[in-house]
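A protein record pairs a chain with a discrete description of its three-dimensional fold. The following entry can be read in just this way.
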Amino acid sequence: IREDYARALLAAGREDDALALSAGSPVPGLARIEAWICQQRGHLREAVAAYARVLTAEPQDAASWNNLGNIHASFGRFDAAIAAFEHAITHMPDEPGMYLNLADVLRRADIGHARLKVARDAAVIAPDNRAVQTELAMALAHNEELDEAIAVLEAAVVKWPEFGESHIELGRLYEATNR
């Protein structure tokens, strides 16, 4: 009942009251609410502690792993972020956003070969996702697989003519390869 009440408070825009009700709770749903509010407010250390309580009780909670990965990435803790995103993907393998988050951290950590594998995996599960296709192309380009990167972006531009990022990246690759 407390969790439902906290959700109702949150839905009503009463974040302070929802946070007061959920703070420090060992109940996973309440800890998840606390973690989310803290994360939204930029209180990331408190959010990490709350997500830890959630994941201790519910280690299969992919969304909490994903959010924890985002927090670790914001602190530059790439190893911890990578591990969290990998847990998220293990528990929700059909969610392309989690692959994109992992690929972004791998890019920032300059682990290009792993980034390319993750981008390829994402393209398998979400072949019709334009952000996934653009990430795949950028990972290919980073790994000097320029012809394949150009082919992926050319297909994306045809499929999604309104998607500007694909156009921009394709132009950059054309320029880099003198095409």
Notes: The radius of gyration is 19 Å. The chain has a mean pLDDT of 95. The first helix runs from residue 2 to 11. Residues 8 and 18 are 8 Å apart (CA to CA).
